[in-house]
Amino acid sequence: MKRFRSLRLLAGIWALSVSVLASGCAGISHSGHNRGESPLPFQGKTITLVTANHPWADAIRPLLPEFEAATGVNVIIQGFFEDQLTQKLTLQLTTGAETPDVFMYRPLQEGKLFYKNGWLEPLDDYVRQDAEYDRSDFSSEAIRSATVDGKLAGIPVIMEQGILYYRKDLLQKAGIPVPDTIDKLVSAARLLHDPDNGVYGFVARGQRSPLVTQVSSFLYSEGGDFTSGQQATINTPEAMRAFTIYGSLLRDYGPPGVINMSWPQASAFFAEGKAAFYTDANSIFKSASDPARSTIAEHIGFASFPAGGNGSRTYNITSWGLAMNPKAVDKAAAWAFIRWATSKEIVLQTQRKGNPGARYSVWNMSEGTAGFPKEMVEVIKQYGIGGVDHDRPTVINVAEARETVGEIVQRVMTGDPDLQQAADRANAALQAILDKEAE
Fold first, then answer.
1. Residues 230 and 366 in one domain
2. Under 8 Å between Cβ of 40 and 71
3. 3-state secondary structure at position 264
4. Beta bridge pairs of residue 253
């Protein structure tokens, strides 16, 4: 069956390649590609793929020989840490370089900037002419996350939702049910907070910029958002309640030094059994629950994000996507790779390695959920169609906007008595960013 699927997928790539090359869609160069010249559609062609040092890249790498053998494309793959990746892409794309042809990027962090600078090839026409690719199979929230100014700027490869991680053993011992509201989460964290015995009630990201994506679920669940249209809204009553709850949880029930924690530190702290509750993205579950890393793996539970005044509302986003360089010499070969790497068959294989993809059909296969804890699969399926398509302010200058929002939460953590005034100043700063980008 697996072999049949692979052959069918590669046949689809062949058919698409011939169609694209014949039509010259979106300015694709098709010189030298004549089916009569070679048994392979892209014999002798080379594309460069630049990735983050990410589990998805680890999963796709051993699959590349199959793609290369079927298409004739030689794929050169290069991996970088996240910050290095951004620097690498910015440097090369600024100079108008023809490589990389295809690259991983973070749509909500870099998408608007990259698109504004002309560094992302719109993929709408490539997808539109390929019925077998089945765009409707992708989560609509994931597609919106990767869309800029109405154009599909990338294809989702990793999808994330916010979830609640918790210690089953601690809750059972204390007779506390899994909290399904934010108020119950606060109460449970208070009851289980026992630092004298090495257990803290709650842990999450406390660093100014990293915390923004995780406080977003509190914000949406309390009925707020970072913006409303072109108006900044981070000083509204809803926002202030969300920021105060998150900051107070970290201040009152978090560990010392939590203000300096991003996700690697927070997940490691939880994995060591030192916290009762942890809120973060589902995609990093292995960092918290891998028996090779965690001392409490068998005691970890997974639950939907608890409800606030506006219900349970969390982000449902594309955290990593694949994009094409508009300067790529052979866009047909580049698209053939993207098409293959994000097909149902390949998403199934990468998802089995624990990489949460964005295709509904794969989540509905038993094979597609085999790489995830059963309890977490149920949570992810509950989100299904729904959630918020961003986890940070959707602006070009994301870094500055995140610092602005994060400052409010950190002021809660440090007990600033003039919190509303600080929030008003932060809101004015975010509004200035919005106004400047609207010019």
1. no
2. yes
3. helix
4. none
